[in-house]
Specification:
Strand content: 5-15%
Order of helices and strands: HHHHHHEEEEHHHHHH
Distance between the termini: 42 Å
Radius of gyration: 20 Å
Oligomer: single chain
Number of strands: 4
Structural class: alpha+beta
Helix content: 55-70%
Largest sheet: 4 strands, antiparallel
Number of helices: 12
């Protein structure tokens, strides 16, 4: 595995500015956002590398048959092309790798997490003209083709295997213990896809305390999305304290407490106590 080193402060700030601009665009570009996430993790990824990744997605789309037919035909064509011929799929070991969440590395390795492999499927299929979208099943992201009444689901992590209704139910039951709700089969918004990718990166970093730097940039990118959970501000403050930036972390905790106080004063008091404890570490 190639070691990943983050970019310097100036380059990082530029990527974040571009990420925020793209996230606020009228029609955010999913592949561009994913590549900007990758640029935060990998200082070797520059403009040329991002262009090369987009060209690779174009190339893969150009190798697909011209408009093969209905949703199932599209699903089969993508599985044969990306899964069988190109070898895109996942393995259990991919969950242990940061590069499994980075689009440019997934394109290079042809391995990744379900959601990043799904991004490859979606971006290639979209370029080829397919009626494609992401489906954010709990615990396992998949890809859908066609309208609800003709919907065909595929699992890119399993090489693009077409899922039956029972398959989808088992995936949801395995992740939540609950039955499949029809609302789970709705198309995922691109910004929700990016937030889920960033959550995966944060989960990877949480299991590796020495990589709190990764957790911090992932939460800071999440905060640039137009819609995000308010608790992310608390998570950022905690990370700052953990990394020794006690004053900034305490200030962030106080700001979050003011937000929380409107709905839960006891919780706000607990956060204020955390802020005081962070400031005490300066003495």
């Amino acid at each position: 595995m190639r070691p990943l080193h983050p970019p310097g402060p100036e380059r990082s700030a530029e990527w974040r500015r571009r990420f925020g601009d793209e996230a606020r665009a009228e029609r955010p570009d999913l592949s561009a956002l994913c590549l900007l996430v990758g640029a935060q993790a990998d200082g070797e990824l520059d403009e040329t590398g991002m262009d090369a990744a987009q060209i690779e997605l174009d190339r893969l789309a150009g190798e697909l048959p011209f408009r093969p037919g209905g949703p199932r035909s599209w699903a089969t064509a993508l599985a044969e092309h990306l899964g069988d011929r190109c070898g895109f799929r996942g393995t259990p070991g991919d969950y242990q790798r940061l590069d499994s969440s980075l689009l440019h590395e997934v394109l290079r390795r042809r391995r990744g997490l379900p959601i990043l492999l799904s991004v490859v499927w979606m971006e290639v299929a979209r370029r080829a003209g397919a009626p494609v979208y992401g489906v954010a099943l709990p615990g396992h992201f998949v890809v859908g083709f066609g309208p609800p009444e003709q919907q065909v689901l595929v699992d890119p992590f399993d090489g693009g295997r077409v899922l039956t209704g029972t398959d989808a139910e088992l995936l949801v039951a395995g992740a939540t213990g609950a039955p499949l709700d029809p609302s789970m089969l709705s198309p995922a918004d691109p910004l929700d896809v990016v937030l889920r990718i960033l959550n995966n990166i944060r989960a990877w970093a949480a299991a590796r305390p020495e990589r709190s730097d990764v957790a911090l940039w992932a939460v800071e990118l999440s905060l640039l999305l137009p819609s995000h959970p308010a608790r992310l501000r608390y998570d950022r403050a905690q990370l700052l304290v953990e990394r020794g930036d006690f004053l900034t972390g305490a200030t962030e905790l106080d700001a979050y407490a003011e937000v929380v106080a409107a709905v839960d004063e006891p919780a706000a008091d607990r956060v204020r106590r955390q802020a005081r404890a962070a400031r005490a570490m300066l003495n």
